[in-house]
Design brief:
Blueprint lengths: L6 H17 L5 H22 L4 H28 L4 H26 L5
Helix pairs in contact: 1-2, 1-4, 2-3, 3-4
C-alpha cells in the first residue's frame, strides 16, 4: 500500500497543516520552527519508511514518526501554556496527535507480525 493511501499518513498530514495554520502569526520564530518541524516529521517519516522496501525499515521509520508525534504533543502543550494558540484549538490538536500516535503504534504491531518482508 502506498503511503498516500494510509489513514495514519492522511491524518498526520492534516495535523501538520493545522499546526502550520495556527502558528502562522507566531513571532517566537525558534519555537514556531521547532513545532512546525516536528509536525512535518510525523507524516514525512511515514512516507519515507513506506518507500524503504521492507517492513523492518518501515517499522524503524514509524518509530521515528512516533517519537516526532510525542515531541509535537509536548510542543502543543507548551504552545497552549505560552498563549501561542487558543486552548480549545490546541486541545483538539492534542486529541488528534494522541490518536495518530496510537495509529502509528498499531501499525508497528501489524507490520511486526510480518517482519520477514
Amino acid at each position: 500500500m502506498r503511503f498516500r493511501e494510509l489513514d495514519v499518513w492522511k491524518r498526520s498530514y492534516l495535523l501538520s497543516k493545522q499546526v502550520y495554520a495556527l502558528m502562522a502569526k507566531c513571532k517566537d520564530y525558534g519555537f514556531k520552527d521547532q513545532i512546525c518541524r516536528s509536525s512535518v516529521s510525523v507524516p514525512s517519516n511515514i512516507a519515507e519508511g513506506s518507500e524503504r522496501g521492507s517492513n523492518k525499515d518501515f517499522i524503524r521509520f514509524l518509530y521515528f514518526s512516533k517519537g516526532s508525534c510525542a515531541e509535537l504533543y509536548t510542543q502543543l502543550m507548551m504552545a497552549k501554556d505560552f498563549g501561542y494558540m487558543p486552548a480549545e484549538q490546541v486541545n483538539k490538536l492534542l486529541d488528534e496527535a494522541e490518536q495518530v500516535n496510537k495509529m502509528i503504534g498499531g501499525y508497528i504491531k501489524y507490520l511486526s507480525k510480518n517482519i520477514s518482508s
